[in-house]
Amino acid sequence: MIRTTVEGDVCVLTLARPAQRNALDSGALRDMERAVADATEPVIYLHGEGTAFCAGADLAEVRTLDGDAAADFAALGQRVGNALEGYDGAVVAGIDGAARGGGVELALACDIRVATPAATFAETGVTLGLFGAWGGTTRLPRVVGEGEALDLALSGRTVDAEAALRMGLVSRLTDDPRAVADELAAVDGRALRTLKERLRDDADQATGDERERAAFAELVDAGAF
Hints:
- The protein is an alpha/beta fold.
- It has 2 domains: 2-182, 2-enoyl-CoA Hydratase, Chain A, domain 1; 188-222, no CATH class.
- 48% of the residues lie in helices and 19% in strands.
- It has helices at 26-38, 59-62, 67-85, 102-109, 136-144, 146-155, 161-167, 178-185, 189-199, 205-222, and strands spanning 2-7, 10-15, 43-48, 52-54, 90-95, 98-100, 112-115, 120-122, 158-160, 172-173.
- Strands 1-2-3-5-7-10 form a 6-stranded mixed β-sheet, sandwiched between helices.
- Helix 1 links the parallel strand 2 and strand 3.
- One of its GO terms (molecular function) is catalytic activity.
- Pfam families: ECH_1.
- InterPro entries: ClpP/crotonase-like_dom_sf (IPR029045), Enoyl-CoA_hyd/isom_CS (IPR018376), Enoyl-CoA_hydra/iso (IPR001753).
- This is Enoyl-CoA hydratase/isomerase family protein.
């Protein structure tokens, strides 16, 4: 299940299946898709309850799927990742404990990944004869580079928080990831949204420059500072 609470300007999404290490079945994915669609706060903070961030897809459900149902399950996970990535605000993943498979993919869809020293990461799908299909094959090389992505995905090896920081899989290590969400919530929401849009724009340089000028002018005109 996904528990949603609003704390000031932060929408807190909690993966709340600690007995299953927060593994996500189709019901939990649909709950998360709705929660992200319903959120209006400048910042979303995504984290797991208990000792894990997210163990990935619920294998008990995956084992029951045929080919068509498996494709639908993957599409649902991709929609959740796309909703997080496309959210009109900042999305922070607070990773404490294990992130495995689909859990890594959820984190990759967030704007900022913050880990505690206890966090560990692995793309374990290959060890089961599978692979993560919630957008990870495109986001992982974009975040850590092709070489690191191939090493992680093809080996299924586990890396600790320090290694994840070195390769760029996470951007900060801290004992209190939630504090990072609060930092962002203290920033002007319009500026947050505009910066995210500009930094994610893959237009050519001239078009990007033009859009950057226009966005800057809009913020100045609005008196956001």
